[in-house]
Amino acid sequence: MRTAYRFGWSGIPAAKANFHFFSDGVLFGSLGTVGTARLLWPLDATFTSNLNPRTGLPLHFYLREEYRALQRFTTIDFFPEKARVIRLEFPEPKKPEKTRTLKIPGLHDLHSALHHVRSAPLRSRDSLSMIVCPGQTAYLATVRVGARKTIEVPAGARRAIRLDLTLGKIEKNGSISAVKKFRRATGWMSDDKDRLLLRLEGEVFIGKVYCELESTDFKEDASR
Fold first, then answer.
1. Residue 221 has pLDDT above 80, yes or no
2. Rounded to whole angstroms, how far apart are CA atoms 97 and 191?
3. pLDDT average, residue stretch 11-17
4. In a domain, 222, yes or no
5. How many domains in the chain?
6. Residue 117 host element (H or E)
7. Model confidence over 172-210: pLDDT tens digits?
């Protein structure tokens, strides 16, 4: 499956992204800022996520980010009881970041977290919790299932399930603290067998942001 999304920031088009999902648990993605947002914050990125098709948990994640004067490379290897995070930057910062180990079992990356939600029954008022590691920090993510209704996105009108998201940062001592740059978020997932993420909107430190589905295309797996 191929999907394309567009992102906005306080009503301004900000970025576009393309994702290619394979049935063996591999995801390729690319994204970049556009328009006015690119003048303020030029970014191009590519990433790969590999899942264990039997457990649905991540095996490996790789992200390359290119900014105006900086390149950043993040690699995460997932194990049953921990994850090892390596981040490199060029030019190298004055205080190079070291390898970090998160000793938390059952960690998800964003790709596996999405599939975990897609595979749940998603009955009204259900609640799902998981620990997600999108980079160097782990978060407790809680998804609460809300009402169903039809919504309109660029890809068309679809019957959708409302999903409200809250996050808590997991500190080194195991305690959970508030995420200062994140306030709240709401997602809409298609209420059908595809369970596509249709729209995601949130309030963060820079204002209101959103992403929405532009197109989707289902094909047989091609060689990579």
1. no
2. 42
3. 93
4. no
5. 1
6. helix 110-118
7. 888 999 998 888 899 999 999 999 999 999 988 878 999
Rounded Cα distance between 73 and 186, Å, is: 29
Pair of tokens at residue 75 = 């690699």
What average pLDDT does range 99-118 have in this prediction?
Answer: 95
Please give the C-alpha separations between residue 201 and each of 55, 132, 151, in angstroms, as whole numbers: 29, 19, 13
pLDDT for residue 222: 52
**Which secondary structure element, helix H or strand E, spans residue 110, and what is its range?**
helix 110-118
pTM of the model as a whole: 0.90
SS3 content of the chain, % helix, strand, coil (to 5): 5, 60, 35
Residue 224 lies in a domain: no
Give me the domain span that covers residue 38: 2-217
Q: How far apart are CA 152 and CA 149, in angstroms?
A: 10
Residue 223 lies in a domain: no
Interacting residues of 107 by C-beta distance below 8 A, sequence separation 6+? 57, 58, 78, 82, 83, 131, 132, 133, 138
d(CA 43, CA 15): 9
Mean residue pLDDT of the chain comes to 92
Spatial CA neighbour of 153 closest among 99, 90, 198:
198
Kindly state the DSSP code that residue 48 receives in the 8-state scheme.
E
56 pLDDT above the threshold of 70: yes
